[in-house]
TrEMBL record:
Domain of life: Bacteria
Gene3D superfamilies: P-loop containing nucleotide triphosphate hydrolases
Natural source organism: Cephaloticoccus primus
Domain named AAA: residues: 5-181
Name the record gives this protein: Sporulation initiation inhibitor Soj
Amino acid sequence: MPTTTVFTIANQKGGVGKTTTAVNLAAALAEKKIPTLLIDLDPQANATSALGIEKTEGRSLYGPLRGEGAAAEMLTPTAIAGLTLIPSEEDLAAAEIEIAQSENYLQLLRRILEPLRNSGDYRAILIDCPPALGMLSMNSLCAADSLLITLQCEYMALEGLGQILRNVERLKSANINADLELGGIVMTMFDARTNLSRQVVDEVKAHLPDKIFNTLIPRSVRLSEAPSFGQTIFDYDAQSAGSLAYRALGAEVIKRFGLK
């Protein structure tokens, strides 16, 4: 049976294309016949609405994180063949506080996802984190095999990169998730017309040459519009630059992690 790889897509800064990447990368993998589960762990539920799924009370991981029910009970089909969703809801915000009062609080998500990881139903599980390094995001890092960081092509974004990498090292050195690896850095909102975008990409390449993906996600109005229609970029505008980029990123992820 092929193993399941768990990816967490994280950045403590908002507005860097994290959810856009989670949704469209998940769709790109499913399009390539990779059975994929997307978990919306952000109480804002943007990944949920971006897939045209209504937020519904009691349909997130809030209950399972509190010991009520199983993650498998929250599985929700999407309009995309091969892509399943565990939605989010506003109540998930309360988990940030409640998780901290639990025993082994950093391992809660890992434990409740174990049956899904071992089910053989999914080749890839993608977790979309809140834009903060709180309890939900830290649980996601503890549950994952690989961290994918979305990094906006601006210098302010580079400051947060070091912070999240330090957290990864802390989790590894504390033996909380010794196997966690930086799987890759996705450069988003790239504008080929500006020197700044190219300089930021070059700087990341200089420091982490084997981690940055070759695919650069462009700054795109079409990518920004698609979620408001409850669609991935492939359904909203299949020939757009954003669509081509996320298909290319999907192919890179499949090759890098041997998902075929």
